[in-house]
Amino acid sequence: MSENTKIEWADHTFNPWEGCQKVGPGCDHCYAEARNARFGGGVAVNWGPGAPRRLTSGSNWRKPVAWNAAAEEFQRQHGRRQRVFCASLADVFDNQVPERWRADLFALIEATPNLDWLLLTKRIGNVPDMLVQVGRSLFWMEHLDEPYLPRNVWLGATVVNQEEADRDISKLLAVPAARRFLSMEPLLGPVDLNQALPPVHCETCGSDYGALSAHGADTPTGIDWIIVGGESGPGARDFNIGWARSIVSECRLAGIAAHVKQLGASPIWNGCSSSPEEHWPDGTRREDLGHGHWHIRLKDKKGGDVEEWPLDLRVREFP
């Protein structure tokens, strides 16, 4: 999507600082922690409770200003706004981050109105109070008591299983935002979004229904976009394609944009008279599980060519 990031659903990646700590099962194989250790002589010096977060350079902080200057022409040519994924190596709403850094980041976001900033967090419960503090810092308004979020921010929450969906989606919906999205990656189990979303009340029949049911299909859910995918990298945990199919189906019913990012380690071969090699590119890793079932790990660490996926998973929709 852009020369400035390898993340396919964004145009740029900006890291205002680096460092974080594990807060859930989705963090177990954190690529950012591994990267921090690689550059720290084998020790992730900016990871964990009490570890110092590292502020990035002034030249790095000036990059979004240059992107903003070029973004208006990009929109004229391509018909859409450019997106900045913020903090791929950190979490904007990390408790260990100095409040001044967060206020400076939001001042930068305000100064770059031609860019849409994607703030994805695993700490959605921290967001309201931290946004109130940011608003007070930016506007010197001690009486400000409502979360302040610029109009060019898309707020996202990571949920990797049903427990996190039930706990965190309602917290995401409670924060006023121009757009809200979910990152369900790495998805570690089946998730029923109807269970996690608030029910819809039907005035005609007087009953409550799931937000994604036929009754609730015309009612906005508050979620604009869902990214789903399996885990990549060494030791990637199993990813069941059925989990993705269910989410994509729910998205289509509710009119939510869906993006299937990668299939990761998917046990998707059910056997037939021909061999898996006739259906999958050379270089994929296969494990014979017996009874005509195969466990397949795609060669491409990011999930392989989407054209090789089952037809109903070739989803690349963006709002």
Structural class estimated from helices and strands: alpha/beta
Helix content: 25-40%
Low-confidence stretches: 268-290
Q: Tell me the radius of gyration.
A: 21 Å
Strand content: 15-25%
Q: What would CATH call the architecture?
A: Alpha-Beta Barrel
Number of DSSP helices? Answer: 7
Instruction: Give the CATH class.
Output: Alpha Beta
- Would you tell me the overall average pLDDT? 84
> What is the CA–CA distance across the termini?
15 Å
Q: Element order, helices and strands?
A: EEHEHEHEHEHEHEEEHEEEE
Shape: globular
Query: Major β-sheet, in short?
Result: 7 strands, parallel
- How is the largest sheet built, in terms of strand order? 1-4-5-6-7-10-11
What is the total number of structural domains?
1
Count of extended strands? 14
Description:
With 319 residues, this protein is an alpha/beta fold. The protein has one domain (12-265): TIM Barrel (Alpha-Beta Barrel), CATH 3.20.20. It has seven helices and 14 strands. The strands form four sheets. The chain has a seven-stranded parallel β-sheet with strand order 1-4-5-6-7-10-11. A hairpin with a 6-residue loop joins strand 8 (200-201) and strand 9. The longest helix is centred in the N-terminal third of the chain and has 21 residues, at 58-78. It is globular and about 55 Å long. The model is unreliable at 268-290 (pLDDT under 50).
